[in-house]
Amino acid sequence: MYLLSLFLALALRPLLVFATWGYTDDGSNYVIDVGSKLVFKVSKTNGDINSIVYRGTEYQGYSGKNSHIQSGLGRSTVTIASHTSPANLLMVTITYGTLVHYIVARSGQNDIYLLTNKGDASVAALRFILRLKPNIFPHDLSTPDFYDNVGATVEASDVVRNSNGYTKSKHYQGSNYGRVMDFDYVGKTTGKVGVWLIRSNHEKASGGPNVAEDLYEILFYSMCHTDPERWGLHGPYVLSFTDGDTPKKELFARNPNWSWFDTLGIKGWVADSARGYVAGIGIANMKSGHTYTVALSNADYQYWGVAASGRGAYTIKRVVPGTYKLTVYKGEYGVYTTSVSVNAGSATALHTITPDSDPSDVAAIWRIVHSINNPQPTYMHPSDPRLSSWGPEDFTVGKTAISSFPGYMWKDVNNDHLVYFKLTAGQIASAKTIRIGITEAYANGRPTIAVNGWTSPLPSASTQGSTRSLTVGTYRGNNHIYSFTVPASAFLTDVTQWNILKITIISGSGNTGYLSAGISIDCVDLY
Ligand SMILES: *[C@@H]1O[C@H](CO)[C@@H](O)[C@H](O)[C@H]1NC(C)=O
Prior knowledge:
The chain is mainly beta and 527 residues long. The chain has 3 domains: 22-261, Beta-galactosidase, Chain A, domain 5 (Distorted Sandwich); 272-358, Carboxypeptidase-like, regulatory domain (Immunoglobulin-like, Sandwich); 362-526, Jelly Rolls (Sandwich), CATH 2.60.120. The protein contains 1 helix and 35 strands. It has a 7-stranded antiparallel beta sheet, with no helix packed on it. A 5-stranded antiparallel beta sheet has the order 1-2-3-4-5, with no helix packed on it. Strands 26, 28, 30, 33 and 35 form a 5-stranded antiparallel beta sheet that branches. The longest helix is centred in the first third of the chain and has 16 residues, at 2-17. The chain is globular. The structure holds 2-acetamido-2-deoxy-beta-D-glucopyranose. 2-acetamido-2-deoxy-beta-D-glucopyranose (NAG) binds at residues 86, 257, 259-260. The site of 2-acetamido-2-deoxy-beta-D-glucopyranose (NAG) has 4 residues, from loops. Residues 21-268 form the Rhamnogalacturonase B N-terminal domain. Its main location: secreted. This is rhamnogalacturonan endolyase. GO terms for molecular function: carbohydrate binding; rhamnogalacturonan endolyase activity.
């Protein structure tokens, strides 16, 4: 009996262990076996990935939904080609109108490489979505009961609340993720199986949210975008399976060797040899406590490089040739712009840059800096009970903790915030300037001020992205500084008394509550 079962085991094992590299056509799908632990299917009708089996377990799909661009492309032309040079690989090409999407597998790799060329606006293609079977990977531990206990929608149906009042939305970034530039991948692991979506270099993208029960690669995000939508090739971005570990670093977009894509005829592909780079020797007058980033942007591409601390040297690699607007960011605030040209195969060398528009170069009498690193509702709705009250609470310069100044103000939630301050006899002898720096505005919200009995002229709205913003997890819009000249006559002549600054959000637009006109505040100062 023992011998017989041993014999059977030996006879069966090779079938399970030695997967064969290659593909078959099952009539409906191209069935691709990477020759390791991964077998996946691509629909010949519409290019959907409708099965992903890793080590014998199906991970793809729920409620009959597949993994694909947008919510599926519809009937497409789907072809497959096999290459033996520069590597053994299979490439599925899906053409739908002006959109071409590629799915590439390499022999022996448990990775699916994805590339998406968006030709124009005629095809909606804002994302690739990987739909994972539920209850295999762990949920967000901060809200363990959330997925089984969705109570009510909060504003649109895309923001929901459970019975604890905890809010959740596909728009909110998980708390472990920050800006696009801060992380290489999203994903989940059970400890034994990890599934990861490794991001593209985002040279064609415009930011976006990250992870939910589904994994997304965002190609363009229509809410609150400040960039143009860029046409052309996104990717590769990589769906990678592991035996529980985090994904291989060589797949990260920040340091890839994609030379094996160069000869595959991918529409819009630009080889490294046809790219250039920017090398700057430094940035002068950097303020401590801030990371400086140098970014390039034009209508077709965007890139960035982080400046080293100390002298601020930076490089921006693998840039497609062209003319770019260069912006030096102190944190997330642009303090210098210029224009640079990048040529193929060479470096554009830049001398030391001295930022010319850093608001903190002005010596202020007082300055309330709302640190955007404080807890912010980037991963919950501003009504969420885990956040502290938005106020209004009065703020007394020199007494109140800076952290209690509201990061957001809405016309219908916490309007008419008061700031108490004293000035010396010398200071009230001349007019002063009060600045309110905002990072985002919703529904044309903008601040107007009163100082004691004096009221400012009403400023006009800043230019911001479309649809919602503050309630869908972002305070990042177009930074704007409102500057008010306050006449000397506005200040109290009794210097022992507190002057009262009132900040009031105005707008002719907006709804009620958190959908009323609002702003996200970075800084308020007086000089
Ligand atoms: C990139 O990979 C190719 C092989 O695919 C290799 O020939 C080349 O040397 C690599 N380049 C770098 C910079 O490592």
